[in-house]
Structure formats: structure tokens, C-alpha cells
């Protein structure tokens, strides 16, 4: 059983997603199994081709792509939210799994964090 | 696994809907802070086993709502202590 | 009593922007009154503003950093502000003031600046972790 960190905020306009990602990475760093679920506007974290240089922020795309290397078990993305934001699974950064946001999905995790 | 969902967001916020969508039939819902105004929202259907914090209801002029179980902070402690899992939305 | 159950409280909502520190304090007092223990209070994100000693609200309003500090000290509860969240938002202890050569430090005792590892430890323990978020 592992921890699920939910990101439901769009990137760049708020710091909450970054701080959620930091939590997931910390769990992984201490060998606690952790997964990320992107839902709602949060699926925009996964859109390929982000260029935030004009905002003087680092691209979150790179952080998410690197997450599995740092031990994050799964990068899950909510199917319905992908449709809502007109994202084809093929337009996402590599390594994500599309899932349905249901109580059954959340039941797989003993701890759920949603900042 | 009995999950207690604690939500503090106004019902118009997307997070409130995400909380409701995560509820299983056997789960409990506790409304705190601005979430208690959901009890006055004609467009929201809450699960039958729902609780709301007395202080938050009273502060917002919503004391005496019949569609919720009103609890105080000690009651919130008991609910959380009894839950197998707690999700704070 | 219920000595087997312990809570970890994570506060992510800031005082005077959200109700989170108030709800969390009411919960914490009720938990202790019923014989439960609180392993740790962890401030994260905007929640770190609760550890500012410099908050100066009007005298007829509660000083939430002070109210929390008194509660934590009175009950010997370990209190941590996430160091990464805190430094970004200008919450410093003496050590970080010296390291970053700032002209003041402002963290209120008994809060300490430590990493997310403290939170991970709570997740990995039998402690029940509750989050007190903002309303957004």
C-alpha cells in the first residue's frame, strides 16, 4: 500500500502543485512508496511543450518526467479530465497511466494527500 | 475500510465535487469551515451519513439544519479516532 | 484513556487568510482533553506563516502564532515548520538568518525549521495524520 498525492491545480499560477510534488519526492527519497494522480486542471501539468521561461519559473514538465527516476511509483492521470482539457494521451509527457477517478482507485492507497 | 472524508471548501469549489466523487457508500463525510454552507445549497445532494461542525454552522447562521448530524470538536476527534482512513480535501 | 491513538496535524493554510489554524487548534485542544496525544504539528506551504513571531494583529483579535506557540509549549508538542516552505516565505531562525545574511530572524518558539522528512516519518508511523487546508 502506498501514499497517493493528488495534484488538482494547474501549473505556474499557484505553488501548491510544486509543493505537492515535493511531498511525493520526499516520500520516495525516504523509501516510502508514493504515486501521483493528476486530475481536474492538474492534468495540464502533463501537457508536452511547456515553455515557462517568460515567467521566470522552471518547467514543471521536467520535474514530473524525472519523478519516476527518483522513485515515484506511478504517474496517474484522470481520463475524464484529459478529455475536458482536450489532451490526447499521446500529447502527454512519457510515463503516465490513464485511470478513472473513482473511490475504487483511491481505495488502493492507505494515505491520500490533496494540498 | 471506513474512510472519513473531511472537506472545508465551499460547495461551488471543484474540490468539493472531487470529495463527493471519492465517497463510497460506507464512508463518512464531515463538513467543516466554509463547507457547511453546502447544507443550505439547494443544488447539492449529500450522503445520508454526514456531519457538520457546530461552531462553523453557528458562525454562518446555519444552526438547526435537520439534514446533518451536528458535532462539536470533541465529536470530530472521536470520528477521526474511529476512522480507518482520513482524507482531508 | 486512548493512549494508543496519536495524531499528527499538518497545517497548510495561513492565519488571517484561512480558518485552518483556528480549526486545527480547536481540534488539538479537544484531542488532548480526551486523552489522545499529538505527535507533531507540521506547517507546510502557506501554513508556515503561523510560525512568524512578528504577526501584529489588532489587540481585539487573536494572535494565532502566539496562541499556537503557547499551546505547543504548554503541552510539550514538537512543532516543525517545513524549512523549504519557510525560507521561501521569509520565516527564518537564527541559523538561517546567519546563513542567508538577512537582518532579522522571526520564527516563534517552539517551532523548528526542519525538512519534509519529519512529515514522512509521521506518515510511516501509526500516527493519524490530518491536514488543515485553506479554502481554495
UniProtKB/TrEMBL annotation, chain A:
It comes from the Bacteria. InterPro entries: DsrEFH-like (IPR027396), Sulphur_relay_DsrE/F-like (IPR003787), Sulphur_relay_TusC/DsrF (IPR017462). Gene3D superfamilies: DsrEFH-like. Belongs to the DsrF/TusC family. This is tRNA 2-thiouridine synthesizing protein C.
UniProtKB/TrEMBL annotation, chain B:
GO terms for biological process: tRNA wobble position uridine thiolation. Gene3D superfamilies: DsrEFH-like (3.40.1260.10). GO terms for cellular component: sulfurtransferase complex. InterPro entries: DsrEFH-like, Sulphur_relay_TusB/DsrH. Pfam families: DsrH. This is tRNA 2-thiouridine synthesizing protein B. It comes from Marinobacter mobilis.
From TrEMBL, chain C:
It is found in: Cytoplasm. Gene3D superfamilies: DsrEFH-like (3.40.1260.10). One of its GO terms (molecular function) is sulfur carrier activity. Keywords: Cytoplasm, Transferase. Pfam families: DsrE (PF02635). The lineage of its organism: Bacteria, Pseudomonadati, Pseudomonadota, Gammaproteobacteria, Pseudomonadales. PANTHER family: PROTEIN YCHN (PTHR34874), SULFURTRANSFERASE TUSD (PTHR34874:SF3). One of its GO terms (cellular component) is sulfurtransferase complex. NCBIfam families: PRK00207.1 (NF001237), sulf_tusD_dsrE (TIGR03012). InterPro entries: DsrEFH-like, Sulphur_relay_DsrE/F-like, Sulphur_relay_TusD/DsrE. This is tRNA 2-thiouridine synthesizing protein D.
